[in-house]
């Protein structure tokens, strides 16, 4: 198990490095988009190459950062349901979901994209737009993104298996235990009281008339 966890940590380090590096492309996309708009409006000039650079960069951000999103536990969940499930139930859902849904789909996409990218590279495929860019690097981004997501899915499966079967602590970012059903039932929906009671400065003031005293 420790060898598998070491392998998982290695994948996590690669995913984190790629995700943090790709995040800087957001600034590049903004600068390219703004510069292209200014030149077009000011000098009435434009280029399909610059327009395609924008969606190349956007595709790189979306595909290469997907694995980092999974690592950071920031993918979309049906929170209204998962928040009422126990921690162990959610771990089982993640573990089985990775095995039967995420990993098979990633393997299928990689298997389909390999000949797709190779064919585009061998033909040195270019955009059909006038002045457009070469296309195979964009297709290679698709393949790279799915490979990274496949590896990260494998890493998450290993970590969930270690939590369920070996009692390893959960180090998933933002992981929170589900609230107990009894606690949710006793709390009013519009007034959540802390477990230790209200803070001293929030305690209701005593009614002087009720205590038999009057204020000046």
Automatic annotation (TrEMBL):
Residues 186-216 are annotated as: Disordered. It is a multi-pass membrane protein. The keyword Transport applies. Residues 30-159 form the Tripartite ATP-independent periplasmic transporters DctQ component domain. The keyword Membrane applies. Its main location: membrane. The chain crosses the membrane at residues 21-39, 54-71, 92-118, 130-151. InterPro entries: DctQ, TRAP_DctQ. Keywords: Cell inner membrane, Cell membrane, Membrane, Transmembrane, Transmembrane helix, Transport. It comes from the Bacteria. It is found in: Cell inner membrane. The complex comprises the extracytoplasmic solute receptor protein and the two transmembrane proteins. Belongs to the TRAP transporter small permease family. Part of the tripartite ATP-independent periplasmic (TRAP) transport system. This is TRAP transporter small permease protein. It comes from Fulvimarina uroteuthidis.
């Amino acid at each position: 198990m420790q060898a598998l966890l070491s392998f998982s940590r290695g994948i996590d380090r690669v995913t984190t490095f790629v995700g943090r590096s790709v995040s800087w492309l957001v600034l590049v996309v903004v600068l390219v988009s703004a510069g292209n708009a200014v030149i077009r409006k000011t000098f009435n000039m434009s280029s399909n190459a610059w327009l395609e650079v924008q969606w190349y960069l956007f595709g790189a951000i979306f595909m290469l950062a997907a694995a980092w999103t999974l690592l950071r536990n920031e993918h979309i969940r049906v929170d209204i349901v998962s928040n009422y499930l126990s921690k162990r139930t959610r771990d089982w859902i993640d573990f089985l979901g990775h095995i039967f849904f995420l990993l098979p789909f990633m393997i299928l996409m990689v298997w389909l994209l390999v000949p797709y990218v190779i064919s585009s590279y061998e033909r040195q495929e270019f955009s059909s737009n006038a002045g457009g860019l070469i296309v195979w690097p964009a297709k290679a981004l698709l393949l790279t993104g799915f490979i990274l997501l496949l590896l990260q899915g494998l890493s998450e499966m290993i970590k969930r298996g270690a939590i369920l079967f070996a009692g390893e602590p959960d180090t998933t970012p933002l992981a929170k235990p589900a609230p107990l059903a009894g606690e949710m039932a006793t709390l009013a929906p519009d007034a959540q009281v802390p477990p230790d009671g209200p803070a001293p400065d929030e305690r209701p003031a005593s009614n002087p008339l009720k205590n038999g005293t009057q204020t000046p």
